[in-house]
């Protein structure tokens, strides 16, 4: 038994367990082995010819056929073998699936605000998931997943399709929870998190653009009474709601005390910092003394916890508050930077947007030039999947101008995978938490 899972709670062993990425390490090893067989090992990838090849594929100046021929010739491999290896690189561990951009909110600083209101075609879902073959799927937005509507199919149909066609896939849902669709989808997912981000109606309305605060809380209670294993509340802390963190936690602690034991066992709160656009992360302006105000809110909450054992236990077991209160590098708003040589996130995770575009990370989802590709609109889907695999290597070798520790918000993924990739993880007592 290791110390990785010693704190038994919905948050500490599931929601906030960063070691869950190790559930994908066998996939990482298979992909790295294929990369080396293709001649893109750690040293060889620095050769000008390889960098030129990956860059040409990424910017569209080289076709898949040309790239396959060049790789085959260099490594004395049959082109069919090269295509097989590259197709294998297309599979992913965790798929973040944005099923629609349609939304009933208008959140400020939304990454997808004012984008096209696209919806992923229902008839293409099986094809995509079969090709990607993820171990787990998070359905989110984009827009509001519960508003999905394509050829009269709803979110319930999407989830039922995934479960019936791929019974071993674990499914989670992140949404605004302003609407609960009809159907039995609730019995098909392992976890859900509602984005609330406020302690009162006024702040909620300012951030979200509409007044659905009370409705969201009502829907949270409905899901807590359901069969979903874990039901969470999300608080994206930012300039407009920093001072509300103590009140937010007090409110939910009071509600928690009146919940059934069944609801308490599944309830959790996750705090996350606002994510600026990819271009401005390095020089993110923490305006209006945000750090100072955040520090005061954290101290106010911590002070109460020191004199209230029940409240302190609530914070430790049902929230990730102490993770943000112990922020390193003097910032509550920027993730700790880790040193890593390759982007493992590019190998293990995948964002599938509502229009079919694929990305390795959500922070660049509003940058078309940084997309991996789009099989949905490709003339040749098989070639496009191979091109996407090569573009994955573009990020894996950190060739993007934004692939550094200052911009990367998934540093911990790469650091952990690199640390454990040479170890036998079967000896670790890790829970099966890949769906988070």
List the main descriptive attributes of the protein structure presented here:
436 residues, 9 strands, 40% helix, disordered N terminus, single chain, 9-stranded mixed β-sheet, globular, alpha/beta
Structural commentary:
It is globular, with a radius of gyration of 22 Å. The chain has helices at 11-15, 25-37, 48-59, 64-75, 79-89, 125-132, 155-165, 201-208, 213-224, 245-257, 261-266, 290-307, 309-318, 321-325, 344-348, 381-396, 411-420; strands at 94-98, 136-140, 170-175, 191-195, 230-237, 267-273, 349-352, 357-359, 373-374. Helix 3 (48-59) packs across helix 16 (381-396), helix 5 packs across helix 16 (381-396) and helix 12 packs across helix 13 (309-318). It contains 17 helices and nine strands. The protein is of the alpha/beta class and 436 residues long. Among the domains are: 23-90 and 339-425, no CATH class; 190-274 and 285-333.
Poorly predicted segments: 1-7
Q: Which overall shape is indicated by the principal axes computed on the Cα atoms?
A: globular
Q: How many H/I helices?
A: 17
Work out the radius of gyration: 22 Å
Mean pLDDT across the residues is 89
Count of individual beta strands: 9
Q: How is this structure best summarized?
A:
The protein has 436 residues and is α/β, with parallel strands linked by helices. The chain is 40% helix and 10% strand.
């Amino acid at each position: 038994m290791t110390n990785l899972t010693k704190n038994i709670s919905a948050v500490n062993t599931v929601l906030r367990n960063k070691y869950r990425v190790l559930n994908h390490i066998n996939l990482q090893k298979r992909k790295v082995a294929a990369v080396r067989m293709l001649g893109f090992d750690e040293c060889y990838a620095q050769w000008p010819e390889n960098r030129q090849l990956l860059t040409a594929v990424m910017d569209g100046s080289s076709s898949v056929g040309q790239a396959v021929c060049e790789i085959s010739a260099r490594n004395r491999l049959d082109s069919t073998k090269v295509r097989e290896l590259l197709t294998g690189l297309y599979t992913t561990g965790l798929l973040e699936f944005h099923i629609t951009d349609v939304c009933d909110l208008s959140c400020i600083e939304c990454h997808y605000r004012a984008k096209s209101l696209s919806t992923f075609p229902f008839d293409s879902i099986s094809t995509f998931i079969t090709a990607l073959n993820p171990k787990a799927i998070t359905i989110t937005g984009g827009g509001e997943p519960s508003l999905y509507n394509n050829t009269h199919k709803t979110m319930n149909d999407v989830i039922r399709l995934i479960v019936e066609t791929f019974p071993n896939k674990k499914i989670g849902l992140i949404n605004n929870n302003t609407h609960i669709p009809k159907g039995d989808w609730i019995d098909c997912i392992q976890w859900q998190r509602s984005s609330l981000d406020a302690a009162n109606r006024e702040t909620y309305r300012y951030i979200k653009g509409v007044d659905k605060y009370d409705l969201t809380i009502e829907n949270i209670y409905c899901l807590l009474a359901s069969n979903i294993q874990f039901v969470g509340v999300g608080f994206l802390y930012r300039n407009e709601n920093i001072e509300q963190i103590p009140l937010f936690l007090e409110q939910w602690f009071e509600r928690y005390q009146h919940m059934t034991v069944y609801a308490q066992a599944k309830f959790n709160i996750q705090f996350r910092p606002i994510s600026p656009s990819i271009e401005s992360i390095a020089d993110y302006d923490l305006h209006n003394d945000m750090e100072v105000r955040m520090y005061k809110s954290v101290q106010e909450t911590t002070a109460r916890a020191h004199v209230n054992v029940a409240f302190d236990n609530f914070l430790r077991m049902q929230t990730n508050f102490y993770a943000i209160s112990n922020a390193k590098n003097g910032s509550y708003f920027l993730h700790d930077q880790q040193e890593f040589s390759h982007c493992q996130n590019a190998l293990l995770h995948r964002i599938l947007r509502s229009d079919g575009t694929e990305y390795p990370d959500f922070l660049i989802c509003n940058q078309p030039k940084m997309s991996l590709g789009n099989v949905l609109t490709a003339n040749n889907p098989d070639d496009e999947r191979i091109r996407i695999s090569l573009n994955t290597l573009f990020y894996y070798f950190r060739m993007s101008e934004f692939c550094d520790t200052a911009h990367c918000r998934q540093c911990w993924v790469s650091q952990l995978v690199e640390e454990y990739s040479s170890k036998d993880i079967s000896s670790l007592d890790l829970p099966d938490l890949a769906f988070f």
